[in-house]
Amino acid sequence: MGTISEAPALFDSAYYRDPYAVYDWLRVHDPVHRFRFPVGDVPMVFLSRYDDVKALLSDQRFSNDGEAYGSEDFRRSGMIFGAGTLIGRILTVLDPPDHTRVRRLAMGAFTPRRVAAWKEPVDRIVGECLARLEKSDSPDVMDYAGRIPADVTGEILGFPLKRFGEMLDAIERAFHADPDNPDHEAVVAAAFEELVDYGRELIVEKRRNPGDDLTSHFVHARDGEDQLTEDELVSLVAVMIMAGIDTTRNLIGSAVLALLDHPDQLGLLRGHPEHTPTAVEEFLRYDGAFCVGLFRLAKEDLEIGGVPVPAGTPVVAGLQSANNDPEKYADPRRLDITRTGQRHLALGHGLHNCMGAALARMETGVAVPALLERFPRMRLAVPREKVLFEENWLLRSLPSLPVTL
Q: Which residues of 113-140 are buried (b: 16+ CB within 10 A; e: fewer)?
């Protein structure tokens, strides 16, 4: 890990090469860090310590709704997630009481019986993806990691495969578009619109032919006594499509890389699959799917740690910095699949904790041990220094992880 002698820059190329060195510096020297976001040159605050990040995520003086509470600079910057589309009104940006109502109706789908029933399709799809990986001339863990949640999400939501490839392409353009493209904002907005359109089509189909799937449940909630609005229904289906695929893909990929970097832990998990539940929690803590949380906007003038935060200021929750805070975790950059103790923040905290957490944990807990068992001699096919995470401010995402099986 590198060392930093002066205030680092967030979200530049050096940061993406080693974000954990930046986090280490900030936690010690500037835990409530004022900076200007490189896109739009917007003044922001970055929190790096575990206690501060956890407090922020449940602090009702902040909102995720950038359109309602963001500063003028922020609203003009193009940084509001899904601005101008229904994606901009998804559950993750709603405040109570709308958030409380929509989340209660949505979580009614995640019953213990339904979650338990997902184990069969997860096992089956992982087996199919392993077979596909084994036949590949150039095996890449990220192909495996991406196809599993895509197929599982498709089956659970109950959508037909006729536009499956188009949907995956839209997700890729929405979350992994080239930031240097002068038409970047338009590309992302168009991709979000495609996902919304697909959600509408799926809802029409499930009204016509309901089944025992999440979309049918959400449609029933829309048409029941505690109604969702039609826009809330569409945005809920769209966010399930997005979050169900990309987040788990990132987690599986980073988990496999972490194990390849820690062969003792790889051997321990292969020989003792009973460690899988704590291993999944450690994968989330060590290198979770998100670097940071969505922007939290101050609803009033306030202070954090003595630092003034004017109303409208976006505050960034450094999730992975918090999850590697040595005040909370001994030797945090060591992977330890038996680690217990302080709960990580990789899947959020408070009102906006991840709705699909149980499914993400299940998929990762099946996909990673199955890969190790099927290919016990698996190793990287390229030098380790060639394996780089994408330069994406929000996601901790590997574009590729080529291996020799």
A: ebeeebeeebeebbeebbeebeeeeebb
Residue 351 has a CB neighbour count (10 Å cut-off) of 17
Q: 3-class DSSP state for residue 321? A: helix
Instruction: Give the count of beta carbons closer than 10 Å to the beta carbon of residue 60.
Output: 10
Q: How far apart are CA 25 and CA 192, in angstroms?
A: 36
Residue 210's region, left for phi above 0, alpha for psi from -120 to 50, else beta, is beta
The answer to whether 122 and 370 are in contact (CB under 8 A) is no
Q: How far apart are CA 380 and CA 383, in angstroms?
A: 7
78 backbone φψ class: left, alpha, beta (φ>0; ψ -120 to 50): left
At 89-107, the pLDDT tens digits run 655 666 777 777 777 777 7
pLDDT attached to residue 1: 46
Q: Which residues pair with residue 37 across a beta bridge?
A: 42
Closest Cα to residue 243, out of 318, 354, 353, 143? 354
Alpha helices in 43-163 (DSSP H): 50-57, 66-69, 72-76, 98-107, 112-117, 119-135, 141-157
- DSSP, collapsed to helix, strand or coil, labels residue 350 as helix
What's 42's DSSP letter? E
Sign of the torsion angle spanned by Cα atoms 13, 42, 250, 167: negative
pLDDT surpasses 70 at 362: yes
**Helix-strand-coil percent breakdown of the chain, rounded to 5?**
55, 10, 35
Long-range contacts of 189-193 (CB under 8 A, 24+ apart): 189/83, 189/84, 189/85, 192/82, 192/85, 192/87, 192/238, 193/85
Say whether 8 sits in a helix, a strand or coil.
Answer: coil
Express each pLDDT in 43-63 by its tens digit.
Answer: 999 999 999 999 999 999 999
Which pTM does this prediction carry? Answer: 0.91
Tokens representing 131?
């077979």
Q: What are phi and psi of 224, to 5 degrees?
A: -90, -165
Output 17-22 pairs: Cβ under 8 A, ≥24 positions apart.
Answer: 17/388, 19/291, 19/320, 19/321, 20/320, 20/321, 20/324, 20/333
Highest mean pLDDT out of 210-224, 252-266, 386-400: 252-266
Considering the domain delimited by 13-404, tell me its CATH architecture: Orthogonal Bundle (1.10)
pLDDT, mean of residues 69-80: 82
Residues 301, 311 contacting (CB under 8 angstroms):
yes
All structural domains of the chain with their residue ranges: 13-404
Q: In whole angstroms, what is the distance from residue 48 CA to residue 55 CA?
A: 12
